[in-house]
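The data are quoted verbatim for reference:
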Amino acid sequence: MALAVAAELCARALRAQDYDRFLTLSFTPPEKRAALTGIYAFNVERARTRELVSDPVLGQIRLQWWCQSIDRIYAGTPGDLPVARLLAAIARERALDRALFDRLIDARAGDFDQQPPTDMAALERYAEASGATVVSLALQALGGWDANSARAGRALGTAWALLGLMRALPFHARQRRLYLPADLMREAGLRAADLFAGRDAPGLAKVVSVVADRAALLLAEARALAPGVAPAARPALLCAPLAELYLDRFRKAGFEPGHRLLEPAPLVKLWRLWRWPDRGRASDRDRPARGG
């Protein structure tokens, strides 16, 4: 399979499964889009494991299959899966850290836990492993890996994951999955059974607001560090303006998950991306990527 075809197929999957990151490709220099497309498409495939497989044993088997796929990618024998073909070229050309891929896969093992995270620290560790690692790979792919960029990526990726988990709370609840800190739930008198049953759950907004406040602090940290990131690597941070948009919407919605305000129109998202001052050297005239 030609790399151009693999990139096109990955971009289609990304558009369907992670539209926000797909939009950020519009503001990424064309010569660097394929690299980010491959990383983001891999993240989508990995993140969907729990949606596709509910049994923990089968889930572990699927995650192990991804570990073996990464082995083949780094061995130069990726097979015909589009994301594997694209990643093999990226990993070789950009010298991506293999350990980061392993960390992403390991993080998804937590999706099969039957209990919510014990406290905010546990939730943040999960968010960092699953969210910040993606940003770290993107920074490496763009040649912007240094101490300042690593800190910015960790803060942004963790905040992005925290906000994503809160936005997806109704969807996860229907699957009997919960990513709210157990200690905060007890303090708020919030019962998992009510969330799983779709019943009114007093105290939910209070717990969500605590998580959102932590995300806000991390976004502020990332914002302060962003100007020190090499311009060529700043497309890796393009989720920042969208994260700030979602945080604004959460506040307007009273921290109510599932509120209609939490899904802005695509044009609103594009406007936020276009106005972000730290998006590097991508041209204002770049149009949304068609392909990768």
Q: What stands out?
A: Residues 281-292 have pLDDT under 50 and may be disordered.
